[in-house]
Amino acid sequence: MRHPYVFPACVAGALLVAGCAPKQTDEETVERAFQDVNVVDETNLSEVMLTVTDPNEAISYYQRTLKSDPDRLDLRRGLATSFVRAKRFTEAASAWEKVTELKDSTHEDSVNYADALIRSGDWDTAEKVLDTVPPTYETFKRYRLEAMMADANKEWRKADSFYETAIGLTTTPAGAFNNWGYSKLTRGDFSGAEKLFGQAIRQDPTLFTAKNNLVLARSAQRKYTLPVVPMTQSERAQLLHTMALSAVRQGDIQTSKSLLRDAIDTHPQHFDAAVRALEALERSG
């Protein structure tokens, strides 16, 4: 059964309540309505800028919008994030620094600031920023950065501890396993590196960087056979090429030649880098 008088009654009630409010001009009412719409539109547009647009377009948007509202935290974060996406790391570090200076900034903002500093090569400042973050703030990104910092300082025990903690704080640890493996590789712990690269590939079978690093770790031990990991034909050829170059560094020239020939035969297209390497080795005898 319909109730034809419900809607008019609601309207009348709304008008009665409005009549009790302080009187506003039509211009003020319209202006307030547009302000509310603009806030919603800006929020949605900001989300779009952080995901699907060219990061340089996002930078222009945030810079333009911040002129009228320079202390808006979400816009400052958006600008800093966009600088990182655009790989403009020095500007990103400056932008994140401004974020951390705002009243409502968080520990996460400080971690992002440290991340941008590391990307821009300012390790000393990054270490100071990380030291301001309390140890009770435990996130994957924070501990990954701490591990990288310990690596840079050659504090291997601390690095291992931080990598282990970071991996326990994420559901996608492939990248952290790869970084940890590379840390072991630079220390000369080739067997330890090999295990960690294997872990990275098990977590993400598409991570070619870990496959390439795994070949480097095996070649450093003179293991000149490809590991049993998922790989495409092109990846197989590229890994054989990596192994061949490693064999040269080890002084195993004949092995390198053989691997380069396999790489050339395996690649589905012309493998120019391998061809040039093989020609150079044959010219040198």
From TrEMBL:
UniProt-listed SUPFAM superfamilies: TPR-like
Domain of life: Bacteria
Keywords, alphabetical: Repeat, TPR repeat
Keyword Repeat: yes
KW Protein biosynthesis (keyword) present: no
Gene3D superfamilies registered for this protein in UniProt: Tetratricopeptide repeat domain
TPR repeat spans: 174-207
One Pfam family linked to the record: TPR_16
Classification via PANTHER family: LIPOPOLYSACCHARIDE ASSEMBLY PROTEIN B, TPR REPEAT-CONTAINING PROTEIN PA4667
Record's protein name: TPR domain protein
Natural source organism: Roseobacter denitrificans (strain ATCC 33942 / OCh 114) (Erythrobacter sp. (strain OCh 114))
Lineage: Bacteria, Pseudomonadati, Pseudomonadota, Alphaproteobacteria, Rhodobacterales
